[in-house]
Each structure stands twice: as structure tokens, then as C-alpha cells.
Amino acid sequence: MLDAHNITVELGRKRILHGVDFTARPGELTAIVGHNGSGKTTLLRAMTGEIPYRGRIMLDGDDLRALPPALLAERRAVLAQATTLAFPFTVHEVVRLGLTGQSALLPGAETLPERALHRVGLEGFGGRFVQELSGGEQQRVHLARVLVQVWQPVTDGQARWLFLDEPVASLDIGHQLQVMRLAADFARAGGGVIAVMHDLNLTAMFAQSVTLMMGGQVLAAGPVSQVFTSATLSAAYDCDLKVSTPPPGGGVFLLPQAVA
Amino acid sequence: MLAESIRVQPAAGDRSVRARQVLVLLSLMLGAVSIASMTVGASGVALFPALGRALSGEALALQERVVLLDIRLPRLLTGILVGAALAVSGAVMQGLFRNPLADPGIVGVGAGAGLGAVLAIVLGAMLPASLAAITGPHLVPIAAFLGGWGSTLVLYRVSTRQGRTSVATMLLAGIAMGALAGALTGLMVYIADDQQLRDLTFWGLGSLAGASWTKIAASAPIILLALIAAPALARALNAFTLGEAAAAHLGIPVQRMKNIAILTVAGATGAAVAISGGIGFIGIVVPHLLRLAMGPDHRYLLPAAALLGATLLLGADMIARVIVAPAELPIGIVTAVLGAPVFLWILLKRRGLVDM
User: Is B29 exposed, middle or buried (0-12, 13-18, 19+ CB in 10 A)?
Assistant: First the structure.
């Protein structure tokens, strides 16, 4: 269980987060949504230990600040919005960077990069140079690297965590679904997934739990069906949104309204 | 076991087997160049006959002993140490700054180390005798190390914001620091006496000719320490290629590794500059060639840089000794003539980097 309590973040003189509470459970995909600048990514970066924060973040009972980097890297992996490479590494070499700590000790660890590439739909790309791939392909290379880092969603009874910052932003719809399914599989196998999302329909389709942010605070949090109401979303995004329930699946979907 | 490991086909994009082959090849090259370096010289003393006689228990002529053991051997070891130090500090610095153009010689670290050395040469004479006795021959390398360290810290502080290095800022900061160090060095030259002036001029051009066991004893510990520390940085430097934040996510203690990298660069550059003066471009040419040959994985790049750096410097030294024999050219001229075009070529091929 990831439990963030009363998180306040200031960047320079600007206060980005105002006492945010956030909870995510292993076995679930928890989405963080909200308008641009609402503090989604800042909250994620506080929880990955990237930026200083006030308040307390507990990861499965351990204070985040007390976990040394190497130990933390065994328990969670982070996919950034975009990653640029400084040198001409091959796809295989970059994915292999995910072999740290425990995953490097798994039996057959050396085959993990190829297996991860297969899972993100990039089999046969191992010998290509990352810098020569399209943005979407590069993003999936890094997803494969992140998957290698936390290969087993549960290890020794303890959940592994995936932090994803807009994982599908640069992908076409087919690969969006593929990546979201991978994340959902990870959660179904007992791992925890926390994803900053822009696409509310994908969020409704794959997330079990959602935290809706606005102006550096949490506007609503809970199961998707409770948070995604026309009134709440319209307020959060300052536009007219209508939540509908299609007959067959029973899930919810959203249709942006062309006329305000 | 060995046959097995050869039969297993590496995964596509895995260049580690190739890298190991390159390492073996480089070791052989260094061995060959070392032998050549021991045989070539103005005196005409031949290595192998002397070696043969020494092995059969015969005493060597005084001239042979002096030439081989007190001139060529220290020069060989100095070339290996300095070449390895320059190439490794270039590779580490490029990994730290995430940029193939970062080289201690180009971004002012060499100039900072040089200033430290010059200050030690000129002002060291004014030290009270008791203090001079303690520092002894270590004063110049230590001062060069401090100068290199200070300038690396300033450079990193100025050109890196939130884990991202601006190449333009880095190069411009390097120019500014080089100019400042140059001015202060000029000031030292102005107040130096005649003997010091000759030391400075000779040293400033870059040469292995001043190699001696005393200088090796003074600088080798620092260089060896840096060379030993470098492999421990390999995993961190690989992770840095993704950016500092991603490196931290991979479990790298980023700040500690940065500090070690900066100390390594300063130590290796400072000690190398202290013995041999301003020898440029080894630090940029060697890692660049190696990345082309075996990829940028620092686990292999760093040891390979040490080997190729040593080999190239010994080769350049032989050119410097032979081309105008019996006189000799400052080696810095040879490395600059060979290296500067390579630097321009990198700029031309990777123009995008300059716009970052």
C-alpha cells in the first residue's frame, strides 16, 4: 500500500501541492487525473522520491525517505514522460539497464530484456539504436526497461510498484491499449500501478481507482464510478463533460461536448 | 566452459562480446607499442640484445642501463599513466555531462589544473623550507589536482540545471575559465625567475621528456587511484545517459556518484597535467573512437579508454621523438594536430548536440 499523507511541494517560491492525501493499493491500477498544471506529475515525482516534499509517504509500511536508492529501485520502477539518451545505445542495452538489484539475480535474468521487448511489441528491435526510433517506439523501449526492473509484480510476498507518467501520451490507439493492458496485467498479478493519465476514457476502462486533482489539491478520490460523474469532471476540467454508460459492457465512457 | 560461452549467441544489440574482443585487441596493441617504445630512441641502444645479455647474467654497459632503466622505462610508464588518465577522465566527464564533447582539456579543467601546477612551481619556491620538505615532489600534482577539482566543480555548477547540462553553457564556461586560468598563469610567468620560466615553457607545451622516477612516484598514486575508482562508476554513468532522475529511479545514489566522478576527473587530469603539461585531445578522441567500435557501455568503455589512451599517447610520443630526431617535438603538438580535426568532425556529424 502506498500512503501519502499531507504532501506539500514547493518549487522555487511557488506552492504546487497543498497538503495532498493519496492512497494506492497493490493489485490495482490507480490513475491520477486532472487539468494541466493541477499537480498530477508533481505528486507522482514526490512519490518517486524525485523532488523534496513536506508530509509523509509510506511505501508498504516503510517511510520513503528512509529507503536507500538501491532498495527503493528494487521495489518500484518509474517511467517518465519522455527520456532522451546522451549516447548511441542499442535498444537491448537500454532495456538491460533495468536489470538492477533483484531482477538481475532472477534465474534467466539475461533473457529478460528480450522477453520484455516481446511484451511491449518490439521483438526484433534489440539491435536498433534507440535514438533512431520514433517517439512512440522509444517510449515502449523505456517501458520494457521499467518492466525488467520490477519483473515480478510480487516478490517474497511484497508488492512491486510501477509509476507511469502519461505512459500513453505519445502512442497511437493500438499501442495505447497494449500498454494499458500491460499495466493492468501487472496490477492483476498483485503489483501496484500508479499512472498519471490524460485520457479519461482509457482511465475509465483500465483503472480501478482514481484521484482527481485540481489546483494542487485532491478534488475527489475513489472508485472510477464514483469519481467520474458529469458534475465532478465538468468542474475539474472547467468544461462541459457528460458521462454516459453504454448498454453492453456496463462501464462508463465520456463524450466531450462540442458545444459548451 | 569457454567453448560454451562462445557458442551462445548474444542477444541482438548486445555488444558485450564484441567489446571484450576489442579489449583483448587493445591490450595486445598496448603491449606492442610498449615494446616499440622501449626500442626506439636517439641513443641507438637496442632493447633485445641488452635484454638477452641481462637474462644470461651478463652485466650491462652503463649507457645501456641508464638509457633503458632511467630514460626509456620511466618515459614508457609515464606515457601509459598519462594516456590512460587523460582518456579515462575524458570518458568519465562525457558520461557525467551526458555529452561526447565534454573533455577536460576543452572545457577548462586542464587549464585549471595547469594553473594549479604553475602556482605550485612559481610560488612553491617561496614556501618555508619545513613545509616544502613535507610536500616534496607531491606539491605540483596536488596543486594541479586541486585546480582541476575546483574548475570541474565550477563548470558543473554553472552548466547544469536540474540534472540537465547545457552544452553551450558548458563550452562557454570552459572558455571563460580557460581565459581566467590563462591570465593567472601569465601573471605567474611574469613573476617567475629564469629557471622557473624554463620549467614552465617546457611543461606548458606538453611533453613526456621530463619523465623521471621521482615524478612517477609523485603522480602515479593519484592516477592509479582514479583509474581504480573509474570502473565503480560504470553502472552509474550508464544510468546517467537516461538523465539524473531516471538514474536515481534505477537505484543509483546520484549525488555520491557525481562527486566521485568529479574527483576522478580532477585527480586523473590534475596528475597527468602535473607530469606532462598540456596534452590535448586524447580525452575526446579515444572515447569517441571506442564508442564507434564497441558502443557506449561504460563497463567496457572505461577500461578500453585506459588501454587505447596509453597506446595512442605512446604512439604520439614515438612520432614526437622520431620526426625531428635527434631533437624532439613537444607531444602536445602531435596530439593536437591529430586530435583537433577529430573534434571538428564530431561537431560536424552531431550538429544537433550543439543546439541543446
Answer: middle
Most A CBs within 10 A among B15, B240, B242, B298, hence the mutation to make, goes to B242
| pLDDT score at A258 | 54
Q: Which residues of chain A are within 8 Å of residue B291 when distances are taken between CB atoms?
A: 87-88
User: Is B251 in contact with A74 (Cβ distance < 8 A)?
Assistant: yes
- Interface check for B250 against chain A (CB to CB < 8 A): the answer is yes
Quote the CA–CA distance of B252 and B239 in Å, as a whole number: 8
Does any CB of chain A come closer than 8 Å to the CB of residue B106?
A: no
pTM, full prediction: 0.87
| Tens-place pLDDT, residues B314-346 | 999 988 888 887 777 888 888 888 888 887 887
Considering only CA atoms, which of A154, A153, A150, A183 is closest in space to residue A166?
A183
Rounded to an integer, what distance in angstroms lies between the CA atom of residue A77 and that of residue A146? Answer: 6
- Structure confidence at residue B7 as a pLDDT band (50, 70, 90): very low
Which of B243, B276, B269 is closest to B155 using CA atoms?
B269
**Chain A residue with minimum CA distance to B238:** A97
**pLDDT exceeds 70 at position B240:** yes
**Residue among B15, B238, B246 whose CB faces A90 most closely:** B15
Contact assessment for residue B170 and residue B104, using Cβ atoms and an 8 Å cutoff: no
Query: What gap in Å lies between CA A29 and CA B249, rounded to an integer?
Result: 20
Q: Among all chains, which residue has been given the C-alpha cell 620511466?
A: B74
Note whether A50 and B245 are within 8 A (CB). yes
Domains of chain A with bracketed CATH: 2-256 (3.40.50.300)
Q: Please give the domain boundaries of chain B with CATH numbers for all domains.
A: 29-37+73-346 (1.10.3470.10)
Between CA A183 and CA A79 the distance in angstroms is: 12
Residue A13 pLDDT: 87
Identify which of B12, B99, B248 has the shortest CB distance to residue A50: B248
Tell me the CA end-to-end span of chain A in Å, nearest whole number. Answer: 40
Which of B13, B248, B254 minimises the CB distance to A92?
A: B13
DSSP B107-172: TTHHHHHHHHHHHHHHHGGGS-HHHHHHHGGGHHHHHHHHHHHHHHHHHHHHHEETTEE-HHHHHH
CA closest to A138 among chain B residues? B242
Chain centre distance of CA B102: 13
Phi, psi of A256, deg, nearest 5: -60, 140
